[in-house]
Amino acid sequence: MSTSETTTHDRGPCPCGNGTIIQHVTTQDNPWSSADSSYSIDCEECRNKWHRENEAPFFVLRSSETEHIAARQQEGAAYAAFDALSERLIADYFLSFPAKNKAREHAEMERLNLTSMTYRQYLAHRRSEESVASACDGRRNIDWILDQAAACGMQSKAAELLDRYEASKKLSSEAARRIERWRIA
Ligand SMILES: [Zn+2]
Fold this sequence. Notes:
Blueprint: E1 4-13, E2 20-28, E3 36-42, H1 44-49, E4 50-51, E5 58-61, H2 62-95, H3 102-111, H4 119-127, H5 142-151, H6 155-177, E6 181-183
Antiparallel strand pairs: 1-2, 2-3, 4-5, 5-6
Helix pairs in contact: 2-6, 5-6
The site of zinc ion has 8 residues, from helix 1.
């Protein structure tokens, strides 16, 4: 049977200044367990407005995250739309690629800088029934993707999807910078 002891420590004021951040340290009475530490906010207002994720050394203001969460969703949707076109262009290219052999396909992907997979990874990828195109990421060679799109009359569509993706990425990183954090002292 083991026993534990929890001590609490005052770690400075809460964000609104009317309460305190409290650290709870639990020490097990045995040599193999390390001390567990958690934090709570002793303030009715701040306890609801702020939260701490995992072991982060700070609390986050919930309301300041809302915009970022929405922006990330927009970014995900814009990426999916660009990626669907990009994957189709890549798939078409490799359909008409003369060598139906995995080593040549992989060499071509590397020549075009479309994949980060090694040849071994590519073989494993194909063995698990994955497509040629899903081994590639069109964002690695945007110029080539736009050229492929131009060759089938889809250049403006590709450029539009790419612009939307770039703009959404920018908005999302701006929103990330507006997330308010309260560092635990
Ligand atoms: Zn407070």
